[in-house]
C-alpha cells in the first residue's frame, strides 16, 4: 500500500475517491512487465501436431435458415435470417469381448452403462441437450483386433471422444500405447483392467508408454506382489517356488493372466533379493503331487522337529539301529538345506 508523503506525486483531481501514488504506478508496471517476461511458454497438450477434425468437438455449430415474413413498403417479402444452432453428442467407444467368459464383457457391461447414463441424466451431471452414443466393438481379447477396433472407433465414421476398455491386459496394451497419437490431443482410455505392473508406471509425459491410460481398478498384480513380499518377510523366508498355470483366471484379465501375474511377482521379488523359481504346471510331466515333490524337494521345504518325530513314529517296524540311521541321514539333508540343527535321535 502507498502512504502519503512529501516525495509522492499524486494523480487525480477533486472528486476522486481514490488516487494512485506515482511510485505505486511504477511498482505495478514493473510487476506487470516481469509477469509477462517470466510467464511460461504455451504448452502443447498433444503428443503430435495434427489438423483437428470438426467431429472431434462434442458440440458442432449448424447453420439453419429461418424464414420469416417481413413488410417492406406495404409489400410482403421473405427475409432470411441466419440462426445458429448446436448439435452436441458425446461418443464413447466400448472395446470389450463379447465372450462372457470374461467378467468385463459387452453383454455384462452394457446394462451397467445404461444405468450409469440414467444416473447422469437424473443428476444433471452433463447438460440435457448433450446426447450420449455408445459405440461397442468386440475385440475377442486379441491384441491386433483391439488395435483395429480402436482405429475404427476413432475414424471419420465414428470419431469417438473416449475409449472404455479393453478389459483384457494383452488387448489393452497396444490400444493404450497408440491413444496418445490419436487426434491432436490424444484420446483418453479408461479401463478397470490393466493389472500388470507396466500399467502403473508414471503417465505424466508424452514419453511415457501409457500416457493416456486411466485405471479405475483398486487391485493390481503389483499390490498382490507387495502383499506376498510382506508375508515372506514376516516369516523370514528367502526362497520361493512359484507354481502357476499360464491360462488361469481367464475371467479376470483374459489370456495368460496367470503368466502375467507370475511376471509381476518375479519383477518385485528381484527387487527384494528374494530367490524364486517359477514352475508352470502346464509343463508338468507327471501329476501335481509328484511335481511338487520334485520341484520343492529339500531346498525349499522346512520341516519342524515335532513333525519329524511324528513321521518317525509312523515308519514301518524295523530294527532300531536301521531306523535311526535312516532318519539321521534324512535329518542331515534337511539341516544342510535349511541351516537348521535338530536334536539327535537316541
Automatic annotation (TrEMBL):
Keywords (A to Z) from UniProt: Membrane, Transmembrane, Transmembrane helix
InterPro entries (UniProt xref): ANF_lig-bd_rcpt, ANP_Clearance_Receptor, Peripla_BP_I
Keyword Transmembrane: yes
One GO-annotated biological process of the protein: signal transduction
Membrane-spanning segments: 20-43
Domain Receptor ligand binding region residue range list: 137-249
Molecular-function GO term, any one: peptide hormone binding
Alphabetical list of Pfam families matching this protein: ANF_receptor (PF01094)
Chief site of localization: membrane
GO (cellular component) term, any one: membrane
The name this protein goes by in its record: Receptor ligand binding region domain-containing protein
Amino acid at each position: 500500500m502507498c502512504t502519503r508523503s512529501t516525495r509522492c506525486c499524486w494523480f487525480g483531481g477533486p472528486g476522486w475517491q481514490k488516487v494512485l501514488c506515482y511510485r505505486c504506478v511504477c511498482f505495478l508496471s514493473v510487476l506487470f512487465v516481469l509477469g509477462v517476461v517470466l510467464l511460461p511458454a504455451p504448452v502443447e497438450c498433444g503428443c503430435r501436431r495434427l489438423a483437428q477434425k470438426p467431429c472431434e468437438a462434442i458440440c458442432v455449430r449448424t447453420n439453419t435458415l429461418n424464414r420469416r415474413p417481413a413488410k417492406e413498403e406495404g409489400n410482403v417479402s421473405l427475409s432470411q435470417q441466419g440462426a445458429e444452432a448446436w448439435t452436441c453428442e458425446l461418443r464413447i467407444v466400448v472395446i470389450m469381448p463379447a465372450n462372457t467368459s470374461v467378467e468385463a464383457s459387452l453383454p455384462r457391461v452394457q446394462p451397467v452403462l445404461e444405468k450409469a447414463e440414467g444416473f447422469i441424466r437424473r443428476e444433471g451431471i452433463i447438460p440435457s441437450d448433450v446426447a450420449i452414443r455408445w459405440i461397442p466393438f468386440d475385440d475377442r481379447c486379441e491384441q491386433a483386433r483391439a488395435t483395429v477396433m480402436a482405429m475404427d472407433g476413432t475414424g471419420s465414421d465414428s470419431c469417438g471422444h473416449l475409449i472404455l476398455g479393453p478389459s483384457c491386459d494383452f488387448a489393452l496394451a497396444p490400444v493404450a500405447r497408440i491413444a496418445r497419437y490419436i487426434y491432436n490431443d490424444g484420446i483418453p482410455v479408461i479401463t478397470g483392467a490393466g493389472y500388470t505392473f507396466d500399467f502403473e508406471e508414471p503417465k505424466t509425459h508424452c514419453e511415457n508408454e501409457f500416457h493416456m491410460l486411466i485405471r479405475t481398478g483398486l487391485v493390481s498384480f503389483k499390490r498382490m506382489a507387495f502383499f506376498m513380499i510382506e508375508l515372506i518377510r514376516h516369516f523370514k523366508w528367502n526362497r520361493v517356488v512359484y507354481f502357476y498355470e499360464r491360462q488361469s483366471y481367464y475371467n479376470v484379465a483374459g489370456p495368460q493372466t496367470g503368466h502375467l501375474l507370475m511376471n509381476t511377482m518375479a519383477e518385485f521379488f528381484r527387487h527384494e533379493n528374494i530367490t524364486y523359481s517359477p514352475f508352470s504346471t502346464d509343463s508338468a510331466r507327471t501329476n501335481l503331487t509328484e511335481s511338487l515333490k520334485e520341484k520343492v524337494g529339500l531346498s525349499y521345504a522346512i520341516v519342524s522337529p515335532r513333525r519329524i518325530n511324528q513321521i518317525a513314529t509312523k515308519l514301518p517296524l524295523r530294527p532300531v539301529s536301521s531306523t535311526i540311521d535312516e532318519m539321521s541321514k534324512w535329518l542331515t539333508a534337511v539341516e544342510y538345506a535349511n541351516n537348521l540343527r535338530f536334536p539327535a535321535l537316541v
